[in-house]
Amino acid sequence: MASPIYSQIAANRRRTVVLIALFILIIIGFGWLLGIFFEDRMGMLLVAALFSLAMTAGSFYAGDKIALWTAGARETSRDENPYLHRIVENLAITAGIPKPKVFLIPEAAINAFATGRNPERASVAVTSGAIERLANEELEGVLAHELSHIKNFDIRVMMVVIVLVGMIALLADWFLRLHFFQGRGDRDRAIHPVFLLAGLILAILMPLVAQLIKLAVSRKREYLADASGALLTRYPEGLARALEKIAADKRPLRRATEATAHLYIANPFGGKRQILTRLFSTHPPVEDRVRILRNMA
């Protein structure tokens, strides 16, 4: 029987393909609607196909840069932060993966995330609050969790989700704004019924669809990353204590968004949006994660 880690890696590769295929189908569907409106179905389908391919390529090859830029992270050198680099390097050696690039997020809240398309092209970002307020074993636990995401290829799925879900949301908004354009050959600015229906459906359902796609990444990846991280450090209590500190910290990350929230080790909104976060969060409850980690000790 395959180990949970290798099963997760295989599942993450399949999820990446499914998410990209779903996005391409949705964009081609938009192209078909455009073809109805402009009476040029083949032309619009070709434009939609090219657009979807360009966006999927962009999400695959530049999604990590977008995530890091959105978080306000900047790359830090070994000379600037030898303590952080030493921990990351030691954990990477233990995990058997290349050392990822190290980024610092200038935020007082405690949090971290990893991104990239594979272990050879990965980055880990940590808030300044995590470095300042976590003990050495706690910070090691957090970073081991993030390096486990890298080793398990979770980062590839999470990165693709950011760009593709965000682009679908933008297109939904664009459909609703088509009434600003003129009609076919006349001065009437009324929106075409097909666009009105499609736009309304997308505007209503897109927040839910975005959450469902992110949930498809699975909360189980967090439990597995917790367990894998604890095996790296051989000290589950370190990550358990770090998670308790993160849960007690009510300060939100200023640049966290709904599109990037699933990247972080825990809810980046602090005390905000607690009810919705509980219902739709891609992260399992912290108390459950802490209990499981302590049962490993």
Molecular structure report:
The protein has 297 residues and is α+β, with helices and mostly antiparallel strands. The protein has 2 domains: 4-62 and 156-181 and 190-216; 69-154 and 219-296, Metalloproteases ("zincins"), catalytic domain (Zincin-like, 2-Layer Sandwich). Helices cover 65% and strands 6% of the residues. It contains 11 helices and 4 strands, in the order ααβαβββαααααααα. A 4-stranded mixed beta sheet has the order 1-2-4-3, with helices on both faces. Helix 1 (4-38) runs parallel beside helix 6, helix 2 (41-71) crosses helix 6 (154-176) and helix 8 (220-233) packs across helix 9 (236-248). The longest helix has 35 residues, at 4-38. The protein is elongated.
Q: Can you tell me the overall shape?
A: elongated
Task: Summarize the biggest pleated sheet.
Answer: 4 strands, mixed
Number of domains: 2
Spatial arrangement of strands, main beta sheet: 1-2-4-3
CATH architecture descriptor name of the largest domain: 2-Layer Sandwich
Low-confidence stretches: 182-189
Q: What would CATH call the class of the largest domain? A: Alpha Beta
What's the alpha carbon Rg, rounded to whole Å? Answer: 21 Å
The overall pLDDT, averaged over residues, is 79
Query: What would the CATH topology of the largest domain be?
Result: Zincin-like
Distance between the termini: 25 Å
